[in-house]
């Protein structure tokens, strides 16, 4: 292979050329500070307004409900800590799920240390929360439900509309981490009764280090970062104008072409899923079969280590991701795979393939050609597999 084939679009995406082209003048020509009064500053100010409008339109929000952040992590932190701080007189109970991104889970754990109580809802074998369990978890002192739109590892999409309805009926705020869903899912914050929603540009072919939090008008949220008057005094600091412009352009492109893009991704995704399961024995799909992101494939292979699989795929010029966090210094398997009930050994042997706009049918065919052989070679080296074969 001349060039690596990238199958890790859930980790990050390449910034589209049209997006970079749109951003470039804001580094050099239109570099003014949006808070200044002269005309080059007007251009930056207008560009920020345009991007805010583009982002609001994509999720059916109002422009002044969009607040720029440094990315999804900051948006999640702001949403959860913000509600905790501003609604503590009502109560100190938060509901989330066991499969949230660490930006949500670690924020909840931090709040537990500050005296808040958090209920972590279980998920079923497909990664779905139970709406009945959610209803039962709501108490007098519940102030927030924070449930992700779609999972970053297994791609399962939660029943967002039903969750929003339950939150509304019970007078509880609803935050959703939509970092993985934005750009591929049709999101309507009004119809779904979403009060707070986190986004990040680098998952939708925009630049890294920029995201946004949608905060429904009327939600009590005081300043998160103190300083100047930017972001309606709630998140101070000179705006990252080029990145904001890039985010706006990227989200506009994503929603202009959403249905065509999804159609192509779903065809590739379904081909990968059915052929891998068909060609590789002792493999299983993780995540819901249909309530699943258009670009997500997550499969566990018994008797192998995901990390070894990734290294061997890399040697064949393929970039993918695994369900264990060994590379980040921990030997724990993914909390998501554990939550859907996979035993340690199966969770360790999982592979996440996330597709994107540069992937072609040839890429998928190449992966299908090399993967079964790699799995077989790894199994041939595995004492566990040897044992299993002897016994069967
Ligand atoms: N939430 C989810 C579901 C994610 O997948 C990610 C990134 O992987 C984040 C939050 C964090 O976003 P960012 O990288 O913009 O901080």
From TrEMBL:
NCBIfam families: FeS_nifS, PRK02948.1. Master enzyme that delivers sulfur to a number of partners involved in Fe-S cluster assembly, tRNA modification or cofactor biosynthesis. Catalyzes the removal of elemental sulfur atoms from cysteine to produce alanine. Functions as a sulfur delivery protein for Fe-S cluster synthesis onto IscU, an Fe-S scaffold assembly protein, as well as other S acceptor proteins. Homodimer. Forms a heterotetramer with IscU, interacts with other sulfur acceptors. GO terms for molecular function: 2 iron, 2 sulfur cluster binding; cysteine desulfurase activity; metal ion binding; pyridoxal phosphate binding. InterPro entries: Aminotrans_V_dom (IPR000192), Aminotrans_V_PyrdxlP_BS (IPR020578), Cys_deSase_IscS (IPR010240), Cys_deSase_NifS_bac/arc (IPR017772), Cysteine_dSase (IPR016454), PyrdxlP-dep_Trfase (IPR015424), PyrdxlP-dep_Trfase_major (IPR015421), PyrdxlP-dep_Trfase_small (IPR015422). Residues 5-367 form the Aminotransferase class V domain. It catalyses: (sulfur carrier)-H + L-cysteine = (sulfur carrier)-SH + L-alanine. This is Cysteine desulfurase IscS. It comes from Natranaerovirga hydrolytica. [2Fe-2S] cluster binds at residue 326. It is found in: Cytoplasm. Its EC number is 2.8.1.7. One of its GO terms (cellular component) is L-cysteine desulfurase complex. Pathway: Cofactor biosynthesis; iron-sulfur cluster biosynthesis. The modification N6-(pyridoxal phosphate)lysine is found at residue 203. The active site is at residue 326. Pyridoxal 5'-phosphate binds at residues 72-73, 152, 180, 200-202, 238. One of its GO terms (biological process) is [2Fe-2S] cluster assembly.
């Amino acid at each position: 292979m001349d060039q690596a084939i990238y199958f890790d679009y859930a980790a990050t995406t390449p910034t589209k050329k049209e997006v970079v082209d749109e951003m470039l003048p804001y580094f050099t020509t239109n570099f003014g500070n949006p808070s200044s009064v002269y005309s080059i500053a007007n251009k930056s100010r207008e560009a920020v307004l345009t991007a805010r409008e583009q982002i609001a339109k994509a999720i059916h929000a109002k422009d002044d409900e969009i607040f720029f952040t440094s990315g999804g992590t900051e948006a999640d932190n702001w949403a959860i800590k913000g509600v905790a701080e501003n609604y503590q007189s009502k109560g100190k109970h938060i509901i989330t799920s066991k499969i949230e991104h660490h930006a949500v889970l670690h924020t909840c754990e931090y709040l537990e240390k500050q005296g808040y109580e958090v209920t972590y809802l279980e998920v079923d074998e497909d990664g779905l929360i139970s709406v009945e369990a959610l209803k039962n978890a709501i108490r007098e002192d519940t102030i927030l439900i924070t449930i992700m739109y779609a999972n970053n590892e297994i791609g399962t999409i939660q029943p967002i509309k039903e969750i929003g309805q339950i939150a509304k009926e019970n007078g509880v705020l609803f935050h959703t981490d939509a970092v993985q869903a934005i750009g591929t899912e049709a999101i309507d914050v009004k119809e779904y009764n979403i009060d707070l929603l986190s986004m990040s540009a680098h998952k939708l072919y925009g630049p890294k280090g920029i995201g946004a939090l949608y905060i429904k008008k009327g939600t009590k949220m005081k300043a998160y970062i103190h300083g100047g008057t930017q972001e309606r005094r709630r998140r101070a600091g000179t705006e990252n104008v080029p990145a904001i412009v890039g985010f706006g352009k990227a989200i506009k492109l994503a929603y202009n072409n959403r249905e065509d893009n999804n159609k192509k991704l779903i065809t590739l995704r379904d081909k990968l899923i059915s052929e891998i399961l068909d060609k590789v024995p002792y493999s299983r799909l993780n995540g819901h079969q249909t309530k699943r992101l258009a670009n997500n494939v997550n499969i566990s292979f018994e008797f192998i280590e995901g990390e070894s699989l990734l290294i061997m795929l890399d040697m064949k010029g393929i970039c993918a991701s695994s369900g264990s966090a060994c590379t980040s210094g921990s030997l724990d398997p993914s909390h998501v795979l554990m939550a859907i009930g996979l035993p340690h050994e199966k969770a360790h042997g999982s592979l996440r393939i996330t597709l994107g706009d540069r992937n072609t049918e040839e890429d998928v065919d190449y992966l299908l050609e090399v993967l079964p052989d790699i799995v077989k070679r790894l199994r041939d080296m595995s004492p566990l597999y040897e044992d299993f074969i002897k016994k069967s």
